[in-house]
Structures are given as C-alpha cells and as structure tokens.
Amino acid sequence: MSDQDITLDEAAKALPAGAALSWGLVKPAQRGPKREMSIEQIVQTAIDIADKDGLAAVSMGRIASALGFTAMSLYRYIPSKDDLLILMQDAACNFPLPPERPASEWREGLREYVLGTINVFREHPWYGDIPILGIPITPNNLRIVDWALRPMRDMPLNDYEKMSFVLLLSGYARSCGMIQRDIDRAVQAGSSEREFGGLNYTAALRLLVKQEQYPDLQPVIMSGAYTEENNGENPVGSDLDFGLDRILDGIEQYLNQKQHAGAGQ
User: Fold this and answer.
1) Contact 146, 100 (CB under 8 A)
2) Given 1.10.357.10, 3.40.50.10860, 3.40.50.720, 1.10.10.10, which CATH number is that of 103-196+235-263?
3) Whose CB has fewer CB within 10 Å in the chain, the N or C terminal residue?
4) What is the pLDDT of residues 19-71, one digit of tens each?
C-alpha cells in the first residue's frame, strides 16, 4: 500500500494524539457528564495561563480549575499534557498572514516570514520553552511552513533546496525570537535593554579583559562594539536586520550561480 492509499483512520493512528486532534481526525470520548467544554476552550485557557505565568504554570489541574471542571474531565478531551502542548503550539501559529507578494519581491516575502515567526516568540514567550521533537505536522504549523515556501515558488530550486532554506531562515528566526523574548522578560522584570546588552559593564570589561589573554576580543571591547556602546561608528544598525540581509544575500547569490550554470549548459 502506498502513502496515497492511507485512510483517515490510519493517518490518525500514525500521528501523536495531539496532532490527530488538531486535524480533527479524533473525536474526544463521549463518556461521562454532559459535554460542556471544547478542545479550543481548553487550549486557549492553557495559552492564557502560559502567557501570564509561563509554561511551568500550565497543568491540567489549573486549567480545569479555571474552567470550573475537574482535571480528570479534561482528559476526555485531550489525552495528555504532551498532547496539550502540541495543540498549544499549533494554536499560537494561527494568526493572519500578509498578502502574497509578486515573485520579484521574494526578499521582502522571506523577511515577513522571519519577522512574523519572531513575533510568535514575543507574543507567547513560552513557545520556545517547548523542545523541538520533530518536523511540524499540525495544520497551523504547516501553514507557516507553506508561508515560508511561498516566496520561493518560482525560484529555480528543487524541493530539498527550498526546505533547506526554510530551515536556515526558521533557525535564524527562532534564535532571534528567543533572544528578543529574553530581552522582553528582562525589561518586564525591571532591567533595561541597556543592561541586557552589557553597556553598564563596559568600563569593568575594559579593565579586566587583557590583550594577552584575549587578543581578538580585547580590541572589540575597547571599541565599544561588544557592549554596543554608541560611539557613532556602527555601520550595522539592527543586528537582526543585518544578519537577515546577509542570509538573503546568500540566497540571492546561490540563485544567481544556479542561473548562470543553467545558462552555460
């Protein structure tokens, strides 16, 4: 039997329960008291708790208490905490996507994907606390992958090249998103971006970091670049934008090389 011959029931059995629930392939058990909850209510309540108090605060007991039910009653809808986390991740990715751009604006399209992904980590700081256990397999997560692929639709790339670029861009977005999330957390806790960037430590580091021990780092510290001291000589601007532009430059160079190679055949 080929993959194309698989039935919905077989697909449901092949997926984790949370993923199967996200696709509507499995219906919650009907036993017990009259059904007065929904999977959507449970997931949204979990997200509200996580947004406010962090992922560690999410438990079936606390969710049930917030909804006015017992913890055991939640398991008739969602079999486990792991399945709940899958559903929370998927729900966090359910946001409006920008309109499709012309093929010539692929750089802007990929930039929107990266910035949109970063925003998920800022809107839902707990999102990055859930470990990556495999490829995206839920509907909203896959919608985000589809969004990343959209600007590459007309590029002279095969599917493996496209997915490798998606992985590169999503990895960059995840890294920047988690850094920005941590900055947000520090600021909310009473710190400042100045302190987070180390600017308050510039003088101490200039005293302590000796050239004989740190021959390449010491000049960078002395220049103020390490702690982002504003001395008017920074041509980079935003580190996020600078790094993303270099990634997009690399993709553009790769496309040019492929086009030139094809023209020479």
Assistant:
1) no
2) 1.10.357.10
3) C
4) 999 999 987 655 545 557 899 999 999 999 999 999 999 999 999 999 999 99
Calpha distance 235→225 (Å, rounded): 11
Phi-psi region of 32 (alpha: psi -120 to 50; beta: other; left: phi over 0): left
Shortest CA distance to 130 belongs to which of 43, 54, 52, 48?
54
Q: How far apart are the first and last CA of the chain?
A: 40
Report the length, in residues, of the chain: 265
Q: How many helices (H) and strands (E) does the chain have?
A: 13, 0
The single residue listed with the structure tokens 């960078």 is 220
For the residues 118-127, what does the mean pLDDT come to? 97
